[in-house]
């Protein structure tokens, strides 16, 4: 009877989704669950914002179990079952009619356990999925030369988003138990259904996974679109009466996310009840013949061994910084401007040290030193005895903090190479060629000032008087990198000495320099170990 009823129950997920979303009670509860879960996490962030940083907030949002969703969806499981099956096709022995009758307290306790323990297990397995899926993706990005896409925000918050997505996918299995318990199935039978699902309904699990990923992709698209529209409204300073017009796309974006969440939850619940209800295996035989169970156990062991191997390999790759790093220099062109820009880029992509020297001092004392190890992602700086040290697991400025400091310090607008002439400087001329060295020079005051400040001379001085102006840089043609240079500029406003500008600096590069960990940091902390694994 049960099998014939299952044949009659919808075979198309589109039909299941249509029937599930056509039930106003189910959709209303799903929308309410979306609002309450999202609202609670926003409230949690707002409350903890005074006491924790952004990373702790992300962790708190991720760790909090979806209690409202579990109890809310369990409460309408019987309604969902009726909606997708239809009263005329439901089997007489279907327990959905019993609803919440029976041991209510026992079922509430089981749902609470799923909401908490199940969520933390889902997060643990979400970690596994994140490491296995994210590692090859990032490896390919590094190999293809798109490592710049992995900005500080992506490196820092990407793991939380990735683990959260992985946990949503894993929640498909606990969600089956929630649906079964909610419609009146015993706790033991519900968990037997969950255990049987991967073997008995792999295609249905794949459908549920695709449905979840579609929701994630749609939500991400809605978030990005809303963010861009809000930024456009803010830049345009539009208003609707006394209200900032940016509230319009925000409200629209929230409405879209709530609607998407309601459809996703309703569809997921309907799918669980349609594809997995009554799919638990028969009761264990009293006989002693265990041979039929040996194959599934062997397959399970192989699957566990394979997943474990993938996780260990991914962890080793990430923790040991195994990734393609392009440090091979590009050929030097003949045009002087392109020559300097290429040599600058070759230097920047290599492991090197940059030193800014005080050319006015008799011994050219070091004013500032910047050292970078691209392969191991280490950066250090030193300015007048004030030292910093950064890796992709620690940010050390005065006090060490477990953060992806390297990713922060090497973003294009933050790279702290003080005093270095800009790679966008133009109008260089070749003034000397000696063996494996070429010397370039700038003499025009506007070009020299732009090389140092990336700004126009006329922007600072109303009527500049140039007393001295030149810049020279030497390129190592064998390494195809910058070697050393010097810049001199003395300018003032006509008739005034208050706005005088006098700069005389020298700089040099050391290719292949190492970056050593400061002794005061001691061994890596737990926080550093975390980022060594996740900030890949």
Automatic annotation (TrEMBL):
The keyword Transmembrane helix appears for this protein: yes
Keywords, comma-separated and alphabetical: Membrane, Transmembrane, Transmembrane helix
Source superkingdom: Archaea
TM annotation in the entry: 57-76, 108-132, 152-173, 205-226, 246-273, 294-317
Stated name of the protein: Uncharacterized protein
């Amino acid at each position: 009877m049960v099998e014939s009823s299952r044949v009659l129950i919808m075979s198309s997920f589109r039909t299941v989704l249509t029937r599930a979303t056509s039930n106003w009670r189910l959709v209303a509860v799903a929308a309410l669950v979306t609002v309450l879960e999202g609202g609670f996490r926003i409230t949690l962030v707002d409350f903890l914002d005074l006491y924790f940083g952004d990373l702790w907030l992300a962790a708190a949002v991720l760790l909090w179990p979806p209690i409202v969703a579990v109890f809310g969806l369990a409460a309408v499981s019987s309604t969902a079952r009726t909606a997708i099956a239809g009263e005329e096709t439901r089997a007489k022995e279907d327990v959905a009619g019993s609803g919440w009758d029976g041991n209510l307290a026992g079922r509430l306790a089981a749902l609470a356990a799923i909401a908490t323990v199940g969520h933390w297990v889902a997060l643990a397995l979400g970690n596994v999925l994140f490491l296995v899926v994210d590692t090859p993706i990032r490896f390919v990005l590094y190999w293809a030369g798109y490592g710049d896409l992995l900005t500080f925000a992506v490196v820092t918050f990407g793991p939380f988003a990735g683990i959260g997505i992985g946990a949503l996918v894993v929640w498909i299995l606990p969600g089956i138990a929630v649906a079964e318990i909610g419609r009146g199935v015993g706790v033991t039978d519900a968990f037997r259904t969950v255990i049987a699902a991967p073997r008995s309904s792999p295609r249905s699990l794949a459908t549920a996974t695709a449905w979840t990923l579609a929701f994630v992709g749609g939500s991400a698209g809605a978030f990005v679109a809303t963010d861009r529209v809000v930024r456009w409204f803010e830049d345009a300073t539009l208003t609707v009466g006394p209200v900032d017009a940016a509230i319009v796309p925000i409200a629209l974006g929230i409405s879209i996310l709530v609607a998407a969440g309601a459809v996703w939850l309703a569809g997921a619940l309907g799918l669980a009840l349609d594809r997995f209800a009554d799919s638990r295996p028969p009761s264990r035989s009293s006989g002693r013949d265990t041979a039929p169970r040996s194959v599934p156990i062997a397959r399970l062991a192989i699957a566990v061994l394979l997943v474990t191997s993938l996780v260990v390999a991914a962890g080793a790759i990430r923790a040991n910084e195994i990734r393609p790093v392009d440090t091979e220099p590009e050929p030097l062109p003949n045009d002087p401007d392109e020559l300097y820009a290429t040599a600058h880029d070759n230097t920047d992509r290599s492991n090197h040290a940059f030193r800014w020297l005080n050319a006015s001092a008799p011994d050219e004392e070091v004013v500032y030193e910047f050292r970078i190890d691209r392969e191991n992602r280490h950066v250090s700086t030193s300015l007048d005895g004030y030292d910093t040290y950064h890796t992709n697991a620690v940010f050390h400025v005065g006090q060490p903090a477990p953060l992806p400091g390297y990713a922060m310090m090497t973003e294009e607008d933050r790279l702290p190479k003080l005093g270095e002439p800009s790679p966008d400087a133009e109008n260089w001329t070749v003034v000397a060629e000696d063996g494996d060295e070429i010397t370039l020079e700038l003499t025009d005051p506007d070009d020299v000032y732009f090389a140092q400040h990336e700004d126009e001379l006329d922007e600072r001085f109303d009527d500049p008087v140039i007393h001295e102006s030149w810049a020279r840089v030497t390129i190592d043609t064998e390494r195809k990198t910058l070697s050393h240079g010097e810049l001199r500029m003395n300018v003032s406003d006509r008739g005034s000495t208050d706005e005088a500008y006098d700069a005389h600096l020298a700089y040099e590069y050391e290719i292949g320099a190492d970056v050593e960990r400061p002794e005061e940091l001691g061994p890596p902390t737990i926080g550093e170990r975390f980022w060594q694994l996740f900030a890949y």
